[in-house]
Design a protein that fits this description.
The structure is a homodimer. Chain A is of the alpha+beta class. Helices cover 22% and strands 30% of the residues of chain A. Chain A contains three helices and five strands. Chain A has helices at 4-22, 65-73, 141-147, and strands at 39-46, 57-63, 81-92, 96-110, 121-127. Chain A has a five-stranded antiparallel β-sheet. In chain A, β3 (81-92) and β4 form a beta hairpin. The first copy, chain A, is globular and about 50 Å long. At the A-B interface, β1, β2 and β4 of A face β1, β2 and β4 of B.
């Protein structure tokens, strides 16, 4: 039979874990410096009609050196970081689509302990690329809802080291 | 009255200059190493219907450090280099366009003396990104035909240092 102290300690430990999970925080994630000269992995255009419609735009995916290694290895070290830089697109002359204003800079940072609740990835996004306009306030849960379907690819839409 | 020797020398000099202009060569331009981590300036999509139709695709423009400086200064030093990395685009689920196979790696290298005939820019292009499949065999004249309209912007379609 457990002592009262042991029971209380177990409860406290349980509470601490629950508290940590419930309140995963990604507000400390900042806009990575110099991501425009990280490895540009690929770009995609989400045309009008794409869902969620907030993701409509011409977007570029950048990987830092650690993330490039992770793409090759299929396994990511803490510190691996991706940036999705999304712009409005505009129809231009001669059947072209060109970049308009920046919509958002979205970031995924690998930290298996800190972001255990969202697959080991910390999510943050900056409206218009403004470092002071952090859009993710739920610890990344909404982002992870979509990324969850990529559990076979480390929760990444980005595949391969191309 | 000129001596016969002087006339012959003048003719020879004239011939040399004409010969150099007529035979500007860009075959020594190679695929720049590491351009995927150069500054990614912007991307554009040339949709079906775009002319010239060989340029249809999703294309990324990269600038080396010297070219980034040039974009800021509005004046380019020799060695400034741009790469246009063009891919087929594919229509994907959820109203998205994604990258397909690489069509070409196109390069512009600044060298005001060597490429005087084409605005100081040397043009070369590599089919499928293959360093051995050089597509430009006319010294860049065909490329320059389109770039000539951008004489007010150093013959570049790319504008600004964004």
């Amino acid at each position: 039979m457990k002592s009262r102290t042991a029971v209380l300690m177990a409860l406290a430990a349980s509470f601490t874990v629950s508290f940590a999970i419930a309140d995963q925080d990604t507000s400390q994630i900042s806009v990575p410096q110099g991501y425009r000269t990280w490895f540009h992995h690929h770009s995609t255009v989400n045309m009008t009609g794409h869902q969620p419609d907030g993701n409509v735009g011409l977007q570029h995916v950048y990987a830092n050196a650690s993330a490039v290694e992770g793409l090759k290895a299929g396994k990511f070290s803490d510190g691996a970081t991706f940036v999705v830089d999304r712009f409005k697109y505009m129809e231009a002359d001669n059947h072209s689509l060109t970049q308009g204003d920046r919509k958002v800079v979205a970031v995924m940072v690998r930290d298996t302990k800190r972001y255990a609740e969202t697959g080991g990835w910390g999510f943050q996004a900056f409206k218009g690329g403004d470092p002071d306009q952090k859009a993710v306030k739920d610890g990344g849960k909404a982002c992870f809802t979509c990324h969850l379907q990529l559990a076979d690819n480390n929760f990444l839409f980005t595949r391969g080291s191309n």
